[in-house]
Structure formats: structure tokens, C-alpha cells
From TrEMBL:
Keywords from the UniProt entry: ATP-binding, CBS domain, Nucleotide-binding, Repeat, Transport
Chain ranges of the ABC transporter domain: 2-237
GO molecular function: ABC-type quaternary ammonium compound transporting activity; ATP binding; ATP hydrolysis activity
Species assigned in the record: Streptomyces malaysiensis subsp. samsunensis
InterPro entries registered for this protein in UniProt: AAA+_ATPase (IPR003593), ABC_transporter-like_ATP-bd (IPR003439), ABC_transporter-like_CS (IPR017871), CBS_dom (IPR000644), CBS_dom_sf (IPR046342), Gly-betaine_transp_ATP-bd (IPR005892), P-loop_NTPase (IPR027417)
Ranges where the CBS domain occurs: 312-367
Gene Ontology biological-process entries: glycine betaine transport
Name of a matching Pfam family: ABC_tran
SMART domains according to UniProt: AAA
Top-level taxon of the source organism: Bacteria
Broadest EC class assigned to this enzyme: translocase
Protein name: ABC-type quaternary amine transporter
Length: 385
């Protein structure tokens, strides 16, 4: 959808902001451009809608050389979101959101209907917020309106320049979550500029790590964190890149342990026998529909009367398969749990322990480094040495 071909931007004083840049962004892909201030990432993005003109090279959007397009027409079909939002203070939220459709000649009713639809999509009830003015909104709410306005004319391309940088960390995380949900629905082609590697990792399908006017590495978040291409990239992503990688490494069925399983209506004697036979200190408890109910410790099952139901404990520490390892680690800490249950919808798959979490991370890193599947990685442990 977006292609840079040997693009350079050099200013009159001799400063080279972008030097011989070539890369492609696929349709529906979200690419984060990350790097320190002055590295050229914002210049790269602004050349896509011709707010900055390249010195040499070509930029194509959907196969069209943008140098041959009318700049105003081009900008009206590319969504643009900036850090300070830039809402018109004298217009209501609904009017702000319908600005581009109005400029494109849409009928007033159609434009307002589209604006209301987008406000609802970004989590702002148009009946509540539509007639408010920007100064009556919080920073996070104004940012949501900015995103809705950028999407109002249904552009194929969305440019976002540090859009969540002006809000506090809690609101920022919520906006990131909301934007990921929104992107899963609208699937726009997005260039997202940020200086925050954690934001880049969380949001991007791929990351372009900028040095001085050049891309040092352009790859998936997992590969950038697990196999930095240069010492510069390794230094930029940080010594804690292993921890950052937890957020982009999903739980897979092969990562799980299979503990003893008992059912709510099993006699305690049956549960005790199973625990003894397997040498286990606890068992997972399922209901009659094979859904997770909780767990039972060995000492609670050591009785002559009653059923598992009488002594089972609820299990709140669980996640769906495919959830990131970072979320698994956080859930363990939140519930002070030595393991978490992993489900496929309602079906119990197994449990993830801290040791298995560590192994999953190591397998993911080794798999990327060796270009093989995670399940094919053979780990060496202390016991093997």
C-alpha cells in the first residue's frame, strides 16, 4: 500500500533528515517508526501526505506516485492524527468529526451519521459527547475524537504522529488498547510514529528502528527484541529486551504442563488416589461440562467422605491461549499464583508455570534466531550440562 523507493530528504543547510530510504508497508499493516528525536521518523511520515517534499526518490500509495497527485486531494484521503489533536475549539465534537466528509462534499446528514458511527466506535456515545466542545473533554477523550475524525472519510491510509504522547501513562495504555481493538475492525494501513519502544512493540505488526536518517532494522517486534540486527538496535531496545519480548510472545499449547484433573462430583477418595499416583500436590477441578472450576490441594482431598465439590477452591488466575506471556506473568503476580490455567474458549488446555513461562520465552528467541518453529527448539537446561 505504501512504498518508499530510495527516498532522501536534504535541507538547504546540508542537513540530511532521511537518507536513501526504501521499504514497503502492506495493506492493512500497522508499522511503527521508532527512534530518538531528530532521527527522521516524523519526516518520513510527513512525506507520505506531502507536508514535506522529498529531495529525491519516489513514494507510492496504492501504486500511485504521490508526486503526481494534487496535495490537497491527497491529504483528504489520508487520515492524520497528531499528538495535540488539533480539534477546532469553536466546533462541537460531532462537527469536528465530520470535517473531512464535509470538505469532500458529503451531504450534511450522511457526514453526521458517519461521525456518530465513528464516535461510537472509539467509545464515545454520540448522544452524550456529540454536542460537547473540545474544552469539555479530557485529554484522552479529545484524542479519541482525533482518531474518529481521521477515520471519518474511510481513508485507506492512516498517519499517526505520537498520538498518545500528551496523556498520562494510564490513559495512554487505555488508548493503545482501544486503538488495537479498533484496528482489528477497520484494518487500515498505518504508519505510527513514536519514540517509545514499548509502545512500538505493543502496537506494531512490524517495527522500523531508526538511526540517523536510516532504518537500522525493519522486522517484527519479536525479531527486533530477540535478534537485534546491530549494536545500535540492541542498545536502543534496551538491556531488558527479554522482558519487553514477553509482551509479543503468545502462550502456545506446547508451553503447558498437564496436571492431574478431577471433577466436581468425584469422591474425595478418587481424587486422593489420582494425586498419590501422580505424586502431585494439587489437581485442577473441572465441572461436568469440562469447564474450569478451580483446584484442590492434596491435603484437602485426603478424606474418606464427601466429594471434590465440598473442598474445591475457585481459580481466578486463568488466561486464553494466545495471550501474551507478559499478561501471564502479571496474572501470576496479581493473584500470587504459582501457576495459571490456560483455556481455549471454555476448554481447559493445561497450566503455565513460571518455569514453563521462562522456557516459552527462550524457545521463542531461539526459534527466531534459527528460523525454525518454536516447537522444534531443543533447550539445554542445567540438568543437561
Amino acid at each position: 500500500m505504501i512504498r518508499f523507493e530510495h527516498v532522501t530528504k536534504r535541507y538547504g543547510d546540508g542537513t540530511t533528515a532521511v537518507d536513501d530510504l526504501s521499504f514497503e508497508v502492506a495493506e492493512g499493516e500497522l508499522v511503527t517508526l521508532v527512534g530518538p528525536s531528530g532521527c527522521g521518523k516524523t519526516t518520513t511520515m510527513k512525506m507520505v501526505n506531502r507536508l514535506i517534499e522529498p529531495t529525491s526518490g519516489r513514494i507510492l500509495v496504492d501504486g500511485e506516485d504521490i508526486a503526481e497527485a494534487d496535495p490537497v486531494t491527497l491529504r483528504r484521503r489520508i487520515g492524520y492524527v497528531i499528538q495535540q489533536v488539533g480539534l477546532f475549539p469553536h466546533k462541537t465534537v460531532l462537527e469536528n468529526t465530520s470535517t473531512v466528509p464535509h470538505l469532500l462534499g458529503w451531504q450534511r446528514k450522511k457526514g453526521r451519521e458517519r461521525a456518530a458511527e465513528l464516535l461510537d466506535l472509539v467509545g464515545l456515545d454520540p448522544s452524550v459527547y456529540g454536542n460537547r466542545y473540545p474544552d469539555q473533554l479530557s485529554g484522552g477523550q479529545r484524542q479519541r475524537v482525533g482518531v474518529a475524525r481521521a477515520l471519518a472519510a474511510d481513508p485507506p491510509v492512516l498517519l499517526m504522529d505520537e498520538p498518545f504522547g500528551a496523556v498520562d501513562p494510564v490513559v495512554r495504555e487505555r488508548l493503545q488498547t482501544e486503538f488495537l481493538r479498533l484496528q482489528s475492525q477497520v484494518r487500515k494501513t498505518v504508519l505510527f510514529v513514536t519514540h517509545d519502544i514499548e509502545e512500538a512493540v505493543r502496537l506494531g505488526d512490524r517495527i522500523a528502528v531508526y538511526g540517523s536518517g536510516r532504518i537500522e532494522q525493519f522486522d517484527t517486534p519479536a525479531t527486533v527484541l530477540g535478534a537485534p540486527a546491530t549494536p545500535y538496535v540492541a542498545d536502543f531496545v534496551g538491556a531488558d529486551r527479554g522482558l519487553k519480548r514477553l509482551s509479543v510472545t503468545p502462550i502456545e499449547p506446547g508451553d503447558l504442563e498437564q496436571p492431574p484433573v478431577v471433577h466436581l462430583d468425584d469422591p474425595l477418595s478418587k481424587a486422593a488416589a489420582k494425586l498419590t499416583a501422580e505424586g502431585a500436590r494439587w489437581a485442577v477441578v473441572l465441572d461436568d461440562a469440562e469447564r474450569l472450576h478451580g483446584w484442590i490441594p492434596a491435603e484437602a482431598a485426603d478424606g474418606d467422605r464427601g466429594t471434590v465439590r465440598d473442598h474445591a477452591r475457585r481459580m481466578e488466575a486463568w488466561l486464553p491461549v494466545g495471550a501474551p506471556l507478559k499478561q501471564a506473568f502479571s496474572t501470576m503476580l496479581q493473584h500470587d499464583a504459582g501457576w495459571i490455567a490456560v483455556l481455549d474458549e471454555d476448554r481447559f488446555l493445561g497450566v503455565l508455570t513460571p518455569a514453563r513461562l521462562h522456557e516459552a520465552l527462550r524457545r521463542s528467541i531461539d526459534a527466531d534466531a534459527g528460523g525454525i518453529a518454536r516447537g522444534d527448539v531443543q533447550l539445554q537446561t542445567v540438568a543437561d550440562v
